[in-house]
């Protein structure tokens, strides 16, 4: 039972960091009514409101994770594959929370509680294969507290490859629109384009212009095509790219060349909804959003001359306005790698000999999983640690970066506070580098980087920019009027903050004083006190009805190759709790059909 | 420090999980405080005193000594994670006895259950009777098992003894069954009796010594020659041994050593 059913709240006297409203640590009061930020409360409302005195504390919008692996078959396979990951990390049930377990891949309940306890209220699943959409939604449905959505994997989809080979962008867009509505997906994810399809024949692609087997389409054509589809439909988020050649020495060049592909496109979101007020533009600037840049910023030509390629990649990104990256940083310790990039996972197995699994998802994509421990004493891991921080520190404009661990690939989301400590303090980095293999500073430029991020920068990297990049800044990532009343209060006095004390930073960011969602306190000092159900966001884009009809004929024709029947393919509405469809590019006839279904 | 005597009150139905029974945790506590410690029985949390009578007795000692007077084969996790002190079990012990222990001694006068000494890091676990499966092994899914300490089994052990063994030593006076020393990467396993099959499967390092017969010898081991009274670290074995290297079925350059006294004819 909520302590505050009217969702009305005043958060007083805190130092507010709200970058989308250009508020940098000013002492300001926040008013929330009915779960949303309002300019003020009436006298009677104020008397009934929950009042929080945040004097001497840091107040930020609720955290937004733009890229995390938290729901779906591969996440669950990661749990099944690793009983040893669970038996020592057991969460006891309370009167209001479920029991749970899992260290690098927690159970769905534990994931929800752990994110909320850390001040995050919104998390997006980074890779949902269409055939596994039901499973993904089932897990999201069971995840408490968090607002969620999932990006759908399209980069090796048979229909997409066929249409792009034929140069038929319109039909490709119609297919994407239908698939997103059918499977309740939020954005377009593209994983090792053209390469995962080749993996079905134990091959990969080496360069952007290598036609793949049978479809004879190149990575460049797929990236360009999906980005065009994305802007033609006007999706909230840009194309989200897991680039080719991931995890291999010397791959920074293909990452840069991939980012160049969309440089001539204009970002164009055609979402039909109300935007909360912000001082800065809340609309995305990018036409491509590179996933886990750390894994694609490698220099050298082999593991012997392996080094950082981050300075080179950052140099390009500093010159362009159409790119955002998330970092996929390495905080050291156990991890479970899981991606839609089957061949990359197999290469990692050949390198480490660790247990692994691989899966082919029929006509759509693939995936792989491997268990791993990142060690400070390992030359390669120490260099990866440095690269994961370089990609955030060498890109000058924080609005081009998002802080992640690509959970649970580089590390766990619960290690974000450790990343914050390194980003805020050069001394913290130097201290860690001393414990690492010497390659950490010898094979990267990190040792020469003096930049120390401010709390304002951290707020950009952990909520404002993640929300804006994925098109959720119409209600998330800031506290302008109309925004969701998601607020995190950290026990940090910015006037008296010693950034050179990493254990202080880590403890304060790990266990905020309060996590507030929709105007209700959900966690207090790490303890879950209220468990609301989160919302599930997805897009409902539309294309020309005639083109959709033609496209559907192709789908029905090729559906004979699937192992599922057509009627069982879509995700029924009942799989979603609190669904929030986002209408995009809606024609009048579709409006008439769907009227009444759109509720916030 | 005193001697703590725990006397089982009677037969236990659903097994009890009692990782609180460890000397370094009970040290300095009164009888009442010990009795109030919480153990799990299925989904219920109950006080230790429901299952044991607690008596503080005996002369002051340097190390805390827990004496369990009777059969605790239905009590799991005794001594789990302990770092010091002694536990003497005057009867059979349940599953996970001494799992993850890092120091001190556990002496079991009867048999010990499966997973005893699991992922042990240090100390001594001595089992006078027989041991069940997975003793001194890695937890399910884990690739690193015991890393230090010593397990002595005076009776037989069953299957998967010393799975993932990476350090320390295990000695079995009697026989073992299947897949002992599977994925061994270090440490020493001495089997004085016979084994059935899969001995040293996927081994990459460390040493296995078997004095008895292996019914089905693992095929990925390569014979390297005969050694008389071979020395393994500080231990000198007596007799003629055939030395094998493996397991080539699982790796290109394995360093696992297998000494067999009965297989010496193979090499001649």
Give a short summary of the structure:
The complex is a heterodimer of chains A (600) and B (268). By secondary structure, chain A is of the alpha/beta class.
Structure description:
The complex is a heterodimer of chains A (600) and B (268). Chain A has a domain at 9-61 and 480-528: Urease, subunit C, domain 1 (Roll). Chain A is built from 19 helices and 26 strands. In chain A, strand 12 (239-242), helix 9 and strand 13 form a beta-alpha-beta unit. Chain A has 600 residues and is an alpha/beta fold. Chain B is mainly beta. Chain B has one domain (3-219): Pectate Lyase C-like. Chain B has three helices and 21 strands. The interface between A and B is small, with 9 and 7 residues.
Gross CATH architecture of chain B: 3 Solenoid
Proportion of residues in β-strands of chain A = 15-25%
**N-to-C CA distance of chain B:** 59 Å
CATH fold group of chain B: Pectate Lyase C-like
Give the beta-strand count of chain A: 26
**What shape does the CA trace of chain A take?**
globular
